[in-house]
Amino acid sequence: MSRLDPLARDKMDPDFARYYEELARAGGRSQGPYIAYMRNPALFKLNQALSDCIRASSLTPVERQLAVLVTIRHFNARYAWCVQTRASLTAGMTREMIDAINDRKRPDMTQASEIAIWEVADSLAGKRTLDDAIYARALAALGEQRLIDLVATIGFFSMTGTTLRAFEMEPPEDDQIPLKP
């Protein structure tokens, strides 16, 4: 059970309540870590903007989702895993890739960019460091801009994973690919 409940409208700052209602009507993100962030309206809004920026980055949808899943797997963030496995399938990621990450294994990949993304995400999220050899391979495979976008994606989802774990936010009941222990 989550340590936080969604914030009741009467507990919200009036300006934030209007913003939140507009976001909800538009189908915006308001669950999971956003339940914590809504207690700090500035953080909530900045997080929404950063999320949009990450989605619009130079990474392809599959590349982005590969980085996302590897990162949140290291945090054992069940809510994010549930939501992001759905997004990964929609983006075109194979179920085999998702299952390998869930098993804490490197997926079967042949593209240098995907291998580099897995290595960087696994190293930064798992070991909290990036050695020179992995950095050089990633820079060669991705180029500077895509590598920066990758690191930003890993950082963003590290914050998401940390928030979800701190407040023990549970996945929706219709979790299609449960996170393994």
What does this 3D model show about the protein?
The two termini are 17 Å apart. This protein folds into 2 domains: 9-55; 61-166, Up-down Bundle (AhpD-like), CATH 1.20.1290. With 181 residues, it is mainly α. It has 8 helices and no strands. It is globular.
Q: Provide the succession of SSEs.
A: HHHHHHHH
Low-confidence stretches: none
Structural class: mainly alpha
* Overall tally of structural domains: 2
Shape: globular
In the CATH hierarchy, what is the architecture of the largest domain at level 2? Up-down Bundle
Q: Major sheet: size, sense and barrel closure?
A: none
What's the pLDDT, averaged over the residues? 95
Our Rg estimate from Cα atoms comes to 17 Å
CATH T-level fold name of the largest domain? AhpD-like
- Number of helical stretches of at least 4 residues: 8
Report the β-strand fraction as a percent range. under 5%
The CATH class of the largest domain is identified as Mainly Alpha
Q: Between the first and last Cα atoms, what is the distance in angstroms?
A: 17 Å
Helix content: 55-70%
Work out the number of β strands.
Answer: 0
